Amino acid sequence: GCDFPCASGSRVVAAESGTVIVSADLTNSDGSYRSYGRYIVIAHDKTDSVGNSVYTLYAHNSQILVSVGEKVSAGQVVAKSGSTGNSTGPHCHFEVRTPTASYNDCVNPEIYLP
């Protein structure tokens, strides 16, 4: 994934239209955040150049503004940036996954960015 440093509470927007398939907080037994902290995953309406499904993940958010099953548009604010989970400061952690939403199917997101 890519980390985009920004002030806590900055707008995190959907890279493309799609449907939210994960909107969750990863926590330890004591309630503290772990791993991605507050994160979302979007299944996108478009496929990549060879027809694979494309999913994006946005992690370490301070606030999540969308729910599972919600349709989102490209550019829609879906979260507010933060530093939850395994994080050393406020930023947006962005991942692209294809052909499934599995962590094992992460690909270099830079090839998808303008």
Helix content: under 10%
Low-confidence stretches: none
What Rg is obtained from the alpha carbons, in whole angstroms? 13 Å
Number of helices: 0
Compute the average pLDDT.
95
Number of DSSP strands? 10
Indicate the overall shape: globular
Order of helices and strands: EEEEEEEEEE
The helix/strand class is mainly beta
The biggest beta sheet reads: 7 strands, antiparallel
Strand coverage percent = over 45%
State the separation between the terminal residues, measured CA to CA.
Answer: 15 Å
Task: For the structure shown, list the relevant keywords.
single chain, 114 residues, mainly beta, three-stranded antiparallel β-sheet, 0% helix, 51% strand, globular
Question: What do you see in this structure?
Answer:
By secondary structure, the chain is an all-beta fold. It is 0% helix and 51% strand. Strands 1, 3, 4, 5, 7, 9 and 10 form a seven-stranded antiparallel β-sheet that branches. It has a three-stranded antiparallel β-sheet with strand order 2-8-6, with no helix packed on it. Strand 9 and strand 10 (106-107) form a beta hairpin. The chain is globular, with a radius of gyration of 13 Å. The two termini are 15 Å apart.
